[in-house]
Task: inverse folding
């Protein structure tokens, strides 16, 4: 499903070139749940941004279902993300002026779904993630675990093929972390491919495979 070959990426820091990804090779199959581990600054988040179509590599190749992602222009990359990728970050930002239901519905509204379709899809995902009781609550009253469930719901509402999560349990207590891991397992059992960047060995051990980022490489 997803294959990266000889990926390289660098950033300029003043006049100095900072090489973040040196020669990354990675292949993930449809329906897998994988973890990516490594020290801070090892290139994990940069790799995720490239996999999500949010950033471009300097060189190398990235194919998703045989599509050449790195050859896409900005409009094509945006369409690729919309159709294929659900992205979850640590402390996901929810829109405080909208309630839980409308935060989750936002991607559907952008995609011009009808009100009936939006109601059906949001109601379904609220129930699936066990947060129906807070569906019309302000996001400002949510617990950390509830807010992360809402962020996950918003990321999966358009039924992406791949869910990419960057430290999704990093700021949660152990009980809530277990709940989120069960949610990922449930989504994975439903056929979603899941890629999780984590420092947490427990989270990594719940995955099918673990990749390690070190000095700009992935093993």
Result:
């Amino acid at each position: 499903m997803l294959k990266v070959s000889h990926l390289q990426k660098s950033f300029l820091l003043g006049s100095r070139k900072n090489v973040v990804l040196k020669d990354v090779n990675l292949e993930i199959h449809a329906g897998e749940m994988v973890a990516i581990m490594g020290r801070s600054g090892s290139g994990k988040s940069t790799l995720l941004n490239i996999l999500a179509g949010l950033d471009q590599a300097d060189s190398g190749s990235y194919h998703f279902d045989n599509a050449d992602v790195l050859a896409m222009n900005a409009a094509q990359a945006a369409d690729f993300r919309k159709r294929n990728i659900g992205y979850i970050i640590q402390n996901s930002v929810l829109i405080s002026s909208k309630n839980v239901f409308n935060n989750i519905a936002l991607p559907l509204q952008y995609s011009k779904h009808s009100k009936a379709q939006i109601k059906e899809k949001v109601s379904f995902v609220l129930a699936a993630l066990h947060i129906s009781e807070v569906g019309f609550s302000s996001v400002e009253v949510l617990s950390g675990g509830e807010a992360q469930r809402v962020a996950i719901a918003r990321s999966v509402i358009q039924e992406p093929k791949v869910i990419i999560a960057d430290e999704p349990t990093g700021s949660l207590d152990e009980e809530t972390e277990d709940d989120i891991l069960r949610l990922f397992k449930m989504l994975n059992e439903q056929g979603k491919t899941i890629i999780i960047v984590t420092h947490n060995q427990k989270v990594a051990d719940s995955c099918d495979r673990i990749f390690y980022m070190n000095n700009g490489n992935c093993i």
